[in-house]
Design a protein that fits this description.
Chain lengths: 214, 110
Amino acid sequence: MKKTNLREVEKRTYMSYHQDGLLDIFVGIYVLLFALGILLMTVTDFSTWFVIPAIFPAIMIPIWISAKKRITMPRIGYVKFGVRGANKLMAVFLGLVVAGLGVFMVFGLGASRGQGWAVTLRNLLISNGMIIIGIGAASISSLFAYTMGLKRLYAYGLLVLALFFTGHFTTIPFGYFLLAIGLVIIINGFVILMRFTRKYPLPQGDETNVEKSL
Amino acid sequence: MSKNPSNLKNIDRLIHEPTRLMIMTQLYVVESADFLFLQNQLQMTPGNLSSHLSKLEEAGYVEIVKEFIERKPHTALTLTKKGRDAFNGYRKNIKKVLEDTHPRELETGL
């Protein structure tokens, strides 16, 4: 018999709220913006393009909440998680904000002002190629996968690692690899969203008669 | 058999029913959930869920609040303090009963 413990039930409940693909779509857009920033920087030699992915989480959160309210909640219902669940979610968002700001500081502000540490770090990352970034990105993805209990984030991490590892041995610009990763994540997100809307069609009426009788 | 059969008497029969146990467990791990969420999570029919919720509400274990979220009617379900205590008590008691039951004693009839 399968052992049922409260932590498992809590995890399953939390995971059920992310089976809509919205997270994938937003993460994919985020990665695409990074790719766009890098590609535009290569073309225009203007490093402040990194402002776009840096401020994206601030714009993304209200849109994401709104999408949850319009797409997810009417289909699978509303749940308010306890403090632990909220803390997990907050940690994910803070992680995104910190990562965005970190990249902005290192590549945008630091490098453009010619600060030694920023230039050194940038040179170190560039000279060691895409493998370091691939390992870093895969680790972050795995961290999020573990925190949120979403196994598909491990797959994204592996995809990032595989593509970046390949990229290390080719001359294709870094931005194109990010572009490919972003697209794969977005497409997967839409596939999950389509499956979700099919599995959970909108209930007819606002409230069932049985629910009204309660 | 349990060494101390009186432990069985301490089991809350209202919670012990499998469906209600599932409802209590689900509500225990969240702050609150609505009717639709619980129905989807537990794969239950509205009628079945409603009847069990009514029993849990009568016992004071579950609070049912009718509210409006973005102008839409919504039935919020929360485990009360009494419900949480009862659930914790149930877990403790059932664990005690199971700990006192030794399969070897059943086999040998000791």
